[in-house]
Amino acid sequence: MKPTIGWRKRRSRLSIEAQQAISGYVFLVPWLVGLGLFVLFPLGFSLYMSFQKVRFTGEGMKFEFKGWENYSYAFLSDNTFVAALINILKNTLLVIPIIVLFSLFVAILLNMKFRGRMGFRAVFFLPVIFSTGQVLSEIFNQKAGSLDMLNKYDIAGFVSANVPTFWAEPILTVLNLFVVILWYSGVQILIYLAGLQTIGTSVYEASLIDGATPWEMFWKITLPALTPFILLNVVYTIVDMFTVPLLNPVLNMIVSNMTVANLGYGYASAQGWIYFSVVFVLILIVLGLSRKFVHYAGER
To answer: Which SUPFAM superfamilies match (predicted)?
Structure first.
């Protein structure tokens, strides 16, 4: 009798686990349907179109297989696309360190205990809420995104005269949009603040007893503990900077090529996949390099 009772209990437990699993899958169904219809299907269809010449006729869309012709045209014939891609890469490589370091500096200041701390946190996060396309367009139209000292002290002339041409243009672009770039630091500041909250006060108290200075505590405690959050902010900033239409001529070029008669959706899809591949490879490089510098909790 005892083995039979034990088997029934085990059977009952498994049935309850199965019921819980089924209920979990039921809740996942709407998300999976949305993922398939609005993400996976458009991605697969755009990849298919990138190897086709797409024409619109009275009977609908007509496809003519072109193989790698769209991709070779992007690299070998369309000089504007390659130049725009190189420029956005240079601009992004300059912008990412500025945003990551600025947000780290501000987060450390906002993590200190002082009166009105929550108000200052809200002020730094407000641009994330207000930085819509229309707001940024108005800022650009009023020339409010640049620094006044650039014209006052002729910094543009100094950079052009002393920096190689390859880097002078992206540096001046970043300086002219410096205020707007700092607007995109709100989420990164919030992530750093969350990371700073994970560091226990007992660690700082023990280091103070041992005679450590604030500078030593930053390099030995704070910075190593924040390396996973620094990596997260770098990846987030890469994706964010590569997906801002107002700061990115490549996205506007892809959209405009959709309506060009001899290019159309096929070539625009190929450009989109090239652009995605560049961003994906850049993220993979960052993740590969991070293995040497990122320290996770519990690791020695």
So the answer is: MetI-like
